[in-house]
């Protein structure tokens, strides 16, 4: 066999995440709980000296994250929001300005509208489904472009290559929240985006058993800036959770393929129900921006949102489902049904939600590994009166 032949992505993920321990050959990277390390010679800098600055288990995960998206470096954080905080604050100072996708995760919205302004950083939201809107929102002091695509929860699509060019032409750092598609379906850095962020709590972890975040940078220069915030502010992922996330990543491909196939079946079924007013899923023909997405990503993902015909239907469905779990979050092996207006987007003012179309009749379904028939039968019994 030709050793130089590049591995296919599925094999490459596994080889990155299932790297063995050099010291023992163990097929699982050990958890190193040490907070500090013996220094043989204080005049020499050694790779590991203190747990916040570096940890061997976290390092294995961070190298895997970089490999997953072809980045110069990866960074593991204690949550998705910690990752977003680090990525953005690495590049802004008082007086700077950010342009962000208009409909994005409620926690990111809160960070941009309630937290950063306290430090003199302003944000303008743009409908990034059209790059002209984004260009119009940019100012001389804009330093960061923060995208989310497909957006949470309406699955709106942004042309990420066009936006990467737009930012690069103006010397703006481009970032995308790639949580929804995961590296398995979308590698944003290959389209010119500078930085990708993830809530690792979702598909990367994959089992609803950890809170984590990730940042992946395309260049060493950007990596240096993110590393500074990671070490200075200290929201690092613990060794135990780094190990858990590495284990989750080993099955990323298998989970994403299977969950996406089921999501497609469920979305098509939902679209045929008379009590469902609208289905948002990029795998459905006619979903706005689908062609752009499919030219940049290899899949539509595993998250669907849909609008029902009445409040009674919403309340009935949420109280009657048995196979689906009603909960906050997404990306686990179990199907999770959530209510954006009261959960993920509760931190967004009601009038903003209304403007964006995140109405009280909208539900979001993260499709897991259950049989498609069981999910459909559950929705059928819970949705029909
Ligand atoms: C798209 C998206 N980005 C970021 C986050 C924040 O991640 P975490 O909850 O891990 O802090 C979430 C959480 O729901 C999310 O859905």
What does this structure look like?
- With 385 residues, the protein is an alpha/beta fold.
- The chain has 14 helices and twelve strands.
- It has helices at 9-17, 56-69, 80-89, 106-115, 131-137, 160-169, 182-185, 220-233, 239-250, 252-271, 290-296, 311-320, 350-356, 372-383; strands at residues 73-77, 97-101, 122-126, 142-148, 173-177, 195-199, 213-217, 276-280, 303-308, 325-326, 336-338, 362-366.
- The chain has a seven-stranded mixed beta sheet, with helices on both faces. It has a five-stranded mixed beta sheet with strand order 8-9-12-11-10.
- Strand 5 (173-177), helix 7 and strand 6 (195-199) form a beta-alpha-beta unit.
- Helix 1 (9-17) runs antiparallel to helix 2, helix 2 packs parallel to helix 9 (239-250) and helix 12 (311-320) crosses helix 14.
- It is globular.
- It binds pyridoxal-5'-phosphate (PLP).
- Pyridoxal-5'-phosphate binds at residues 79-81, 105, 107-108, 152, 177, 179, 199, 201, 211, 213, 344.
Q: Determine the fraction of residues in helical runs and give it as a percent range.
A: 25-40%
Number of strands: 12
Bound molecules: pyridoxal-5'-phosphate
Continuous helix count: 14
Distance between the termini: 60 Å
Q: What are the secondary-structure elements, in order, as H or E? A: HHEHEHEHEHEHEEHHHEHEHEEHEH
Task: Please give the oligomerization state of what you see.
Answer: single chain
- Name the strands of the widest sheet in spatial order: 1-7-6-5-4-2-3
Write down the Rg.
21 Å
Largest beta-sheet details: 7 strands, mixed
């Amino acid at each position: 066999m030709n050793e130089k032949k590049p591995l296919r992505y599925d094999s490459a993920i596994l080889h990155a995440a299932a790297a063995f321990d050099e010291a023992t050959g163990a097929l699982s990277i050990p958890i190193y709980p040490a907070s500090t390390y013996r220094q043989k010679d204080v005049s020499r800098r050694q790779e590991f000296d203190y747990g916040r600055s570096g940890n061997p288990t976290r390092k294995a995960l961070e190298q895997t994250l970089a490999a997953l998206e072809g980045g110069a470096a990866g960074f593991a954080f204690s949550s998705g929001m910690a990752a977003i905080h680090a990525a953005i604050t690495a590049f802004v100072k008082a007086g700077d300005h950010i342009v962000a996708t208009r409909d994005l995760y409620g926690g990111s919205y809160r960070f941009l509208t309630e937290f950063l302004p306290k430090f003199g950083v302003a944000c303008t939201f743009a409908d990034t489904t059209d790059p002209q809107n984004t260009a119009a929102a940019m100012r001389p002091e804009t330093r960061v472009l923060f995208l989310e695509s497909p957006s949470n929860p309406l699955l709106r699509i942004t042309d990420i290559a066009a936006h990467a060019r737009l930012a690069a032409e103006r010397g703006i750092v481009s970032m995308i929240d790639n949580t929804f598609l995961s590296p398995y379906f979308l590698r944003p850095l290959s389209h010119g985006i500078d930085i990708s962020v993830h809530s690792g709590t979702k598909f990367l972890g994959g089992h609803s058993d950890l809170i984590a975040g990730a940042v992946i940078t395309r260049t060493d220069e950007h990596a240096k800036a993110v590393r500074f915030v990671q070490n200075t502010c200290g929201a690092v992922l613990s060794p135990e959770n780094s190990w858990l996330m590495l284990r989750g990543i080993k099955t990323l491909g298998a989970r994403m393929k299977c969950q996406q196939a089921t999501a497609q079946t469920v979305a098509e079924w939902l679209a045929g129900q008379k009590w469902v007013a609208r289905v948002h899923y990029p795998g459905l023909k006619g979903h706005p921006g689908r062609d752009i997405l499919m030219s940049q990503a290899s899949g539509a993902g595993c998250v669907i949102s849909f609008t029902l015909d009445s409040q009674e239907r919403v309340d009935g469905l949420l109280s009657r489902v048995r196979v689906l779990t009603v909960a906050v979050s997404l990306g686990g092996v179990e199907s999770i049904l959530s209510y954006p207006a009261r959960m993920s987007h509760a931190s967004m003012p009601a009038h903003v939600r209304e403007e964006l179309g995140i109405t009280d009749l909208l539900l979001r379904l993260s499709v897991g590994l259950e049989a498609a028939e069981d999910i459909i039968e559950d929705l059928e019994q819970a949705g029909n009166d």
